Amino acid sequence: MSRRRVKWLAVFRTPVGASSAVLLALMFALAVFGPILWGEAASEFDTGAIQQGPSAEHLLGTDQLGRDIFHRVLVATRLSLELALLSTAIGLVIGTILGTAPTVLPRRLGRTVTAAVNIAVAIPGLLLALFFAVIFGVGTSGAVLAIALAGAPSFARLTQTLAASVAGRDFVSAARVAGVGRVRLLTRHILPNIGEPLVVSGTIGAGNALLAFAGLSFLGIGVQAPDYDWGRLLSEGLDRIYINPGAALAPGIAVVIAGLAFNLFGETVAAVVGVRTPSRKTGPRPAPVTRDAAAVDSGPGEPILAVENLRVAFPGRSGWTTPVRGVGFTVHPGESVGVVGESGSGKSLTALALSRLIETPGVVSADRLEFAGTPLLTTSERELRTLLGTSMAMVFQDPMTSFNPTMRVGRQLAEVSRHHQGLPRRAAFARAVDRLRAVRVPGAERRARQYPHEFSGGMRQRAMIGMGLMGDPRLVIADEPTTALDVTVQRQVLRLLAEVRAAKRAAILLISHDITVVAQTCDRILVMYAGRIVEDLPTGDLFTAPRHPYTRALLAAVPDMETDRDRELAVIPGRPPEPDRMPVGCAFAPRCPVADDRCREEDPVLGRIANAHRVACWHPADAEPPRVTALVSAEHDRAATVNPAGGGA
Amino acid sequence: MSELVFDGVSVRYGNRRKGLTAVDRVSLTVPAGKTVGLVGESGSGKSTLARAAVGLSPVSAGRVLLNGTDVRRLPRRPRPLQMVFQDPYSSLNPRMSIGGSIAEVMHLDGRAGAAARRAEVVRLLELVNLGPDCADVLPGRLSGGQRQRVALARALAGRPQVVIADEITSALDVSVQGAVLNLVRDLQRRLNLSMLFISHNLAVVRYVSDIVAVMYLGRIVEVGPVEQVLADPQHPYTRDLLDAAPTRHSRLTSGGTTEVADTEPADPHRPPPGCGYHPRCPVGPLVRADRDVCATTDPSHGAEGRLHAVACHFGRPEHRHETG
């Protein structure tokens, strides 16, 4: 609630919003107090001063009955605004009723209403207003109705679109299932959720109504004497524009200012409320903290990917948040490494950072970030493009969004070779077909000529992997590649990745929330929690000797095909910390069964406890009895020797 | 004690020429007080079937019966049939307090005052392990797991006899999923609900269900008590699903890789003739030349006589009556 209010208040912080708001406020003050202050002066006949020019007594001169034009313009504010607001309100109500009718009425009747509205929208509003003005007769009430009805179709159309998008959401379905009636559905579920944009467009509509009304009055089919609004004053003044230009210009300017104020205010509100861009006033970038540069192991040969103290930060409402807080690991050629973690653990951001896909305002920093010996953070974009384009392949969760929907799949694959390897068009296409065949897309030749939407999810994912194979990938980063797929298709895709790895000696970095998927596919598993790696262990140890309480809890919480059906599933209490509110000590401490004061005060370092096993915990669980009992953190002086039985040394 | 029966239900979209049969003559019984798990790949029609039961998708043939009454004739309130949706972020009205969302479904005596309503909301929140102060907050303040509990409480507010749960854990994080599954199972047993539990995750279905039904291309291809079906699957698709479900000991390389295994799932717009699974079937006509009956004859005829009512020409005949 308060957040929404803050959002609305942001309108006044933009210069346009503030000035149009002030203008509107002045206008309304004038409408309220104008007639009280100058009402008499404006209607006072002065037969001695008919049709005078500007003078000290009459700032803008007088009209043919000797009335003061300046005062009349000020006093006319009330009627002009009143009529504009009244007709907008009527239009808005009619529009909302028409627009929401299809959700309430039986389907066929609803369609008829929709069709009628669609036709009405196509007719220019002012033309409609003129038409209605003739029907309702000349006069104020006729004009109000005319403008209201002329504006109604566009409001109806807007309401329809908004209501349709809300009506498709699950909470409306839920209410229908619960037996909530149609009218209540409308008033309690649909209208509150479309109110904001409706009010905004109503504000803009009021500006337009004001202009339209001035137009009708000017033509003589709006406000009739002795009443007067700006349009009428304009038409009266226009006759003598060469003698006394002020008499016509003043109401004209009033119309323009009022119309602008309404429109600009509406537009600003729409921009602020609709686009939801918080004003960005964040402090200086976070200083890279050089701790927890998790040990890079000097395994056999040069690693293909070396990451030390990788951090990803984004500016937030209150300073910088760091969803990835010092991640370090290496991947060797041909190795397959899995990254598991829940949403918000930073696993996907890590993957994006590795492929240089974090966009501003996000900031990536690392003590070391090297791919195939090339530092990723300091090398120029152009040099990297070819390297990443040919040697690193990315596979995302939703291949539908990673392909260009308007381009045939084969051509999209061929682009890679044409761009990075300079192959001619035909050769590149042939290679694309060949690669599609390599990822076992049936009928590759024909498939290459199809568009992405003609592919099923699994096929698309294969084509995506095929695209990675257009170059000579040394590392395939797959970010939840099978999450959108079914188990049978998932197996196909995972097998394909394994084949690519075997055939090309490419390393695989597989990111998933599903620990069993990762365990099936990878040699080594990195468990991430709250932007850190909390455990790095060989897959063989995962089910037998996990040491971090989080890893153990995760394994216990996920049912698999062997879970005891008669026992309750283990539960991890609480929820992960928000990235902008990280606890001081271990991020898992609030949910951890073995946490003590030390855990809450000091953040544990990812330290090596066995040859290929690292864990960031002050009290790692017991491994099987004969295993290593001392935990020695590899490179950091802060590291401590910890007795797994309990307290640290 | 209520029984939900799908009796030859079909759901078709579009016209005759360019139509899509999302659910094709499905008959399925959710016995009183039991949980039936419905598995199948996306697009197999699981959710459409569930939505048909609560009137959210149009039933073009057949009937859905609750204790013998067509669900379209059920009283609007209290509605004895409730549903919990997949995405807890879109299934709660963002502009309505949690208490308001729950109270809307409640059916109290017309004279019941605000205090009675409040007490009922608190009772329901307690049922799903949420504190009473939750009642006044908007959904935006709650986590995914908490929202899903609220969605459960809302479904229970209608005092339903049957609850349909459509992929209720698949949008949740693994650490929260367990808690929701425990809760669902506990509530189902405590309140003696009949439940249709839909999930694409076989392990989850196995954990909560008494009976499992396997759906493929709008048809139920196998149904039976969960242990029996998982221990002795009759339909090749069920076997394939079981094979593919990742377990702690299985490695990717286990299980045979055949040409058939790489075939694309069928397009529901153009279902294959005969058995819908035959183009992917590892024991079907593509592998064994003598089995061309699969490509011509619909195996759902005579399924009742086979073990697990399997829609496969080569399923074993049933010896005793197993599904109640």
Offer a concise description of the structure.
Chain A has 649 residues and is of the alpha/beta class. Chain A is built from 22 helices and 13 strands.
Domain tally of chain A: 2
Quote the average pLDDT of chain A.
83
Give helix % range of chain B. Answer: 25-40%
What structural class results from the helix and strand content of chain B? alpha/beta
Order of strands, main sheet of chain B, comes to 6-7-8-3-9-10
Q: Let me know the largest β-sheet of chain A.
A: 8 strands, mixed
Cα gyration radius of chain B (Å): 21 Å
CATH architecture of the largest domain in chain B: 3-Layer(aba) Sandwich
Largest sheet geometry of chain B: 6 strands, mixed
CATH homologous superfamily grouping of the largest domain in chain B: P-loop containing nucleotide triphosphate hydrolases
Between the first and last Cα atoms of chain A, what is the distance in angstroms?
49 Å
Gyration radius of chain A (Cα, Å) is 35 Å
Q: And the CATH topology of the largest domain in chain B? A: Rossmann fold
Helix/strand class of chain A:
alpha/beta
What does this structure look like?
The complex is a heterodimer of chains A (649) and B (324). Chain A has 649 residues and is α/β, with parallel strands linked by helices. Chain A folds into two domains: 75-275, Orthogonal Bundle (MetI-like fold); 305-406 and 451-615, P-loop containing nucleotide triphosphate hydrolases (Rossmann fold). Chain A has helices spanning 2-13, 15-43, 69-104, 107-122, 125-136, 140-167, 170-177, 182-219, 230-238, 245-275, 347-354, 381-391, 399-402, 409-420, 425-438, 444-447, 457-468, 487-504, 515-521, 539-542, 549-557, 597-601; strands at residues 305-316, 319-331, 336-340, 363-365, 368-371, 374-375, 392-395, 475-479, 507-512, 524-529, 532-538, 607-610, 613-615. In chain A, the strands form two sheets. In chain A, strands 7-8-9-3-10-11-13-12 form an eight-stranded mixed β-sheet, sandwiched between helices. In chain A, strands 1, 2, 4, 5 and 6 form a five-stranded antiparallel β-sheet that branches. Chain A is elongated, with a radius of gyration of 35 Å. Chain B folds into two domains: 4-94 and 144-209, P-loop containing nucleotide triphosphate hydrolases (Rossmann fold); 235-324, no CATH class. In chain B, the strands form two sheets. Chain B has a six-stranded mixed β-sheet, sandwiched between helices. Chain B has helices at residues 46-53, 98-105, 114-127, 144-157, 174-190, 202-208, 226-231, 236-244; strands at residues 4-13, 20-30, 35-39, 61-66, 69-70, 81-84, 162-166, 194-198, 211-216, 219-225. Chain B has 324 residues and is of the alpha/beta class. Chain B is globular, with a radius of gyration of 21 Å. Chain B has eight helices and ten strands. In chain B, helix 2 runs parallel beside helix 4 (144-157), helix 3 crosses helix 4 (144-157) and helix 4 (144-157) runs parallel beside helix 5 (174-190). The mean pLDDT of chain B is 86. The chains are: A alpha/beta (649), B alpha/beta (324). At the A-B interface, helix 7, helix 8, helix 17, helix 18 and helix 19 of A face strand 6, helix 2, helix 4, helix 5 and helix 6 of B.
